TrEMBL record, chains A, B:
Lineage start: Bacteria, Pseudomonadati, Pseudomonadota, Alphaproteobacteria, Acetobacterales
Organism superkingdom: Bacteria
Protein name per the record: ATPase BadF/BadG/BcrA/BcrD type domain-containing protein
Coiled-coil stretches noted in the UniProt entry, renumbered to this chain: none
A Pfam match: BcrAD_BadFG
Residues annotated as domain ATPase BadF/BadG/BcrA/BcrD type: 6-259
Length: 295, 295
């Protein structure tokens, strides 16, 4: 029996093979694997990473199919909340004895608290609040951009572009922020007025560092924008902990923007935070181990 | 000499052939023609419409190329503000003696005021403010969704989805609006929480009628959302008329959502409105006529 843990993210895949006792045999990386966007693309990324890990571990590809090894796998996958997608993904891996597909919010939360109960608020390109309490779990936000992902980098970048466009139009006054966003785009050789037509969440999120820098340099408009994002994060957390039995949970702030955005969140939000114990991949490995124990 | 006017819109093309004195010989329709999205697709839609109009007018396709007829053409094209696109489009129509490509905002404004100076605020899926004063013109907003198009149908639909998602998460209270949006999507067999992942501006705009209906039935949340859209329209108009020499302009409200949204705009906005005299196609024909007179 071997354990397989997969962190299937929107920008990359990370995969780990371990023994039932938890000894890591290999880790590898693969391409994007958001199963809401494309199950086929995600499967391709995962298979690429799996082949590479098998090689690193000194195993052969035969051992995936010949029944010699029982594969107990678990994935935390971006987009797994979209109906039917986990089932579609599982069907593409018939050689895995068990393949447990969860949302990456679930595995991140499990990993962050070392398998114990707790809550996370992830702040990266998007945002999501997630909490696990025994066999109950609860999620707030993270419904995608631009409709949700409040407080995430893409929403911050979108607000910055709106501010710059309104200033260019003369609808509001120019600020250090409007000037900084315009210059940033111009220096990349882009037209600030039309650049954002068809821009992706990732494109908008690239402007978040510009906002953070401008706010640190004393721009009131940038500071207000970040405080508004901080209030959005507080709103996520409040709704998350309001649920029965969840109010005393410890909270881990994860994601690439968490450290930078937390100073702009209300004090009550910051007071809740504890240190992170592990990643979404660690969480997926915990799921695989649980499944292995039940087998 | 023959005149050719083209209204090249994001969803359809309308084309008219007329004599230099303005007698219409034929009108026809074609596919989508947003030159920001695809110049090639736009050219294909225009050529299809042109062939059909030539047939209706009793002309032959030879007459496009053999030099027998001088073609003076003008288009008001969606996306013409994107650098280099008008030039690219013109290059695909070498047989037109003159081909003047303007933004559809310009031709709409010219058409709306029968060729006289004036302003328009277009409120449809998107929104834009535009004004012409002699040889000066001024534009506010209309920089695309979700970053601009304030007060347009897609922005109203986006705000409605955000409201529904926040209510579903327990971040805010349920309202008649959150319930109506959820039911609307469920009745279409869609999952309200994940439907908007990858939804287009047109998809979001389909929710605007739900907001308008719910507001008319007395929902405060829907009313506040529309009042906020109305304030956005007021902001466009203020910035438009703030420019030197533009303050006393007459304003035409155009677009599929104008009539429904105007009651939610501040009184000062409504007081500015005058009746529309013509379409973007009429405006394009005026450009073609002006060019013909100068030839």
């Amino acid at each position: 029996m071997l354990l397989l843990a997969i962190d299937a993210g929107a920008t990359k895949t990370v995969l780990r093979i371990a023994t039932p006792s938890g000894d890591v045999l290999a880790e590898s990386r693969g391409g994007p694997a958001n199963i809401a966007t494309s199950v086929e693309q995600a499967a391709k990324s995962m298979e690429g990473a799996l082949r590479s890990a098998i090689q690193t571990a000194g195993l052969t590809e035969d051992m995936l199919h010949n029944g010699e090894v029982k594969w107990i796998a678990a994935a935390g996958a971006a987009g797994a909340e979209v109906g039917g997608r986990p089932e579609k993904l599982k069907a593409l891996f018939p050689y895995l004895t068990i393949f447990d597909v969860r949302t990456d919010a679930y595995t991140s939360c499990l990993g962050a608290h070392g398998g114990a109960d707790g809550a996370i608020v992830a702040i990266g390109t998007g945002s999501v609040g997630y909490a696990i309490c025994g066999d109950r779990n609860h999620r707030v936000g993270g419904w995608g951009f631009p409709q949700s992902d409040e407080g995430g980098g893409a929403r911050i970048g979108l607000a910055a572009v709106r501010h710059m466009l309104a200033a260019s139009d003369g609808r509001i006054r120019e600020s250090d922020l409007s000037v900084a966003v315009r210059h940033y785009l111009q220096e990349l050789g882009l037209d600030p007025m039309t650049w954002s037509v068809g821009a992706s969440a990732t494109d908008f999120a690239a402007l978040a560092p510009v906002v953070l820098r401008t706010a640190k340099n004393g721009c009131g408009a940038a500071a207000r924008l970040l405080e508004s994002a901080g209030k959005d994060i507080a709103g996520l957390l409040d709704a998350l902990l309001k649920k029965d039995g969840f109010s005393e949970m410890k909270v881990v702030f994860t994601g690439g923007l968490a450290t930078e955005l937390l100073p702009w969140c209300p004090q009550a939000v910051r007071d809740k935070g504890v240190l992170c114990q592990g990643t979404s991949l660690d969480g997926a490995m915990k799921v695989a181990m649980q499944r292995a124990c039940l087998t």
